[in-house]
Write a structure and sequence with these properties.
The chain is about 50% helix and about 10% strand. The protein is built from 20 helices and 11 strands. α2 packs antiparallel against α7, α3 packs across α7 and α5 packs across α18. It is α/β, with parallel strands linked by helices and about 475 residues long. The radius of gyration is 21 Å and the shape is globular. α13 links the parallel β10 and β11. An 8-stranded parallel β-barrel has the order 4-5-6-7-8-9-10-11, surrounded by 6 helices. The longest helix has 22 residues.
Length: about 475
């Protein structure tokens, strides 16, 4: 182990901890909270040895401080049993950039309103273009929890752990192995919630919904079985399935039934009594990131709330799931979010607008650098009918990884308007989604697992970033 890198960790924490032989002692909790943001920065930008120590020590500090990675499975299944009312919708937030600062805003608002039902997530695609492997993302979230004095379950989720249809066609075994490897990596980092997405393999050219959904169902069951074999002792990872690609045609009840029935039949073949899904993602008319008009504005989207209501009821009442999940919602108008609660949606995924808030408030010179990079790097992906506004909007997310250091280097004065707007956005969303007061349900139905982080994982070779432009966010 690199002793110099460990000493750097002690230094950024102002010697507020002691560590020896995998045992950590917090000497000064206030000092840890004050300086842990520097540990998150070291995790993001330090040398390989510094990143490894920062992430491992951060995990130990978080658990000892009471911020514990956990699964939302028990809460969701309790909702399916009717023991938790379907009167709130859990926000699942993809924090693509400055995740530590954004998560601090989330925890601050959550503590204000006594919320416990909220999820931090990152998709397979986002892991690639934001250059945040699971251990780095989890470190940002857990450091934010410690900084804000948040104690209790912290739900971190792998979103759209998706099969690429193109790569699956070329080499099915290799593509399945890639998702399996990412899943293990994520669970080792503290992701105890995984959304499987094999909906890319739905074949609508087949006759009848069972045939159309068959490969989706069987591969979802395969990955669920894989997760059950590899999840830590004492943890039942929350697994979500998906019946239709976001941006495609709207889902229907026949598809849901065909997928879930096929999934359960295959899972029963793979193992007796294995825990299955806790929720199911459907398509109701949205698209990831929204649709950009020539003037740079985002087109208004009509969500089919009747479909969401019906499929949530079927999922909850007949299959015991928490309900249906809504993707691609962050750019909807404010008055739409309360309708997710009315429709019984158990979870809604939010991402792009947090990124928009960042890009609309960073210094203009930095934004110009981002757009110059996008113009040069991704010119070949420009659609013939797209102007600069549309091209930049759709592709600026791909600059988040390459510009990570510049984002971390923003001054306090430059960060303040971003933080204030993020916090206001989370407060608005959490109000409409009615998660205030949900801490009591989380405390009643969530187990805080005693999972000791594996030091070898944090000091192993990190997986290479993938080419991800064919994957969903």
């Amino acid at each position: 182990m690199n002793n110099e890198a460990l000493q750097k960790v002690f230094h950024v924490l102002d010697s507020s901890i002691e560590y020896s032989d995998n045992a950590l002692t917090i000497k000064d909790s206030a000092a840890v909270r004050s300086h842990i943001g520097k540990l998150a920065e070291l995790s993001a930008l330090g040398s390989k040895a510094e990143q490894s120590w920062a992430r491992y020590i951060a995990r130990l500090i978080a658990v000892q401080s009471g911020a514990v990675p956990a699964s939302i499975h028990e809460l969701y299944i309790a909702r399916g049993r009717g023991e938790v009312p379907p009167t709130f919708t859990v926000p699942a937030m993809n924090l693509r950039a400055l995740s530590y600062e954004a998560a601090r805003c989330v925890f601050r608002v959550a503590r204000e309103i006594d919320a416990g039902a909220f999820i931090f997530e990152i998709a397979r695609s986002e892991i690639g273009y934001t250059e945040q492997r699971p251990a780095e993302y989890a470190t940002n979230i857990l450091c934010a929890a410690v900084a804000e004095g948040y104690q209790g379950p912290v739900f971190i989720q792998g979103d759209h752990f998706q099969i690429s249809a193109k790569r699956y066609k070329e080499d099915p075994a290799d593509e399945i192995a890639a998702v399996e490897e990412l899943t293990v990596e994520a669970m080792q980092a503290g992701f105890f919630n995984i959304d499987i997405d094999t909906s890319t393999l739905v074949d609508i050219n087949q006759v009848g919904e069972p045939a159309q959904q068959r490969l989706n169902s069987e591969l979802s069951a395969h990955f669920t079985h894989f997760i059950r074999r590899h999840e830590p002792d004492g943890v039942t990872v929350s697994v979500g399935g998906e019946i239709g690609e976001v941006g495609g045609r709207n889902s229907n009840e026949a598809e849901l039934r065909a997928y879930v029935d096929g999934f359960q039949e295959k899972l029963d073949e793979l193992g007796d009594g294995l825990a299955g899904l806790s929720k199911i993602s459907i398509q109701t008319g949205t698209s990831h990131g929204g649709v950009v008009l020539p003037d740079g504005s985002v087109a208004k989207v009509k969500v089919d709330f009747d479909t969401l209501l019906n499929l949530s009821r079927v999922a909850r009442n007949e299959y015991g799931f928490a309900g249906a999940v809504q993707h691609g919602a962050s750019t909807l108008p404010q008055d739409a979010f309360g309708k997710f609660v009315e429709a019984g949606a158990c979870e809604v995924h939010l991402a792009t607008n947090f990124q928009n808030i960042l890009y609309e408030r960073i210094p203009k010179a930095l934004l110009a650098e981002v757009y110059a990079y996008v113009d040069e790097k991704y010119a070949g992906d420009r659609k013939p009918d797209h102007n600069d506004e549309q091209f930049h909007y759709e592709n600026r997310k791909r600059a988040l990884g390459p510009f990570k250091a510049q984002m971390w280097a923003l001054s306090d004065a430059e960060m303040q308007p971003i933080i204030e707007t993020w916090e206001a956005q989370f407060r608005m969303l959490f109000g409409h989604l009615a998660i205030g007061g949900t801490r009591k349900y989380v405390d009643e139905f969530t187990t805080l697992p005693d999972v000791k982080p594996q030091r070898d994982f944090y000091f192993g070779e990190e997986a290479e970033q993938e080419e991800v432009k064919d994957l969903a966010d």
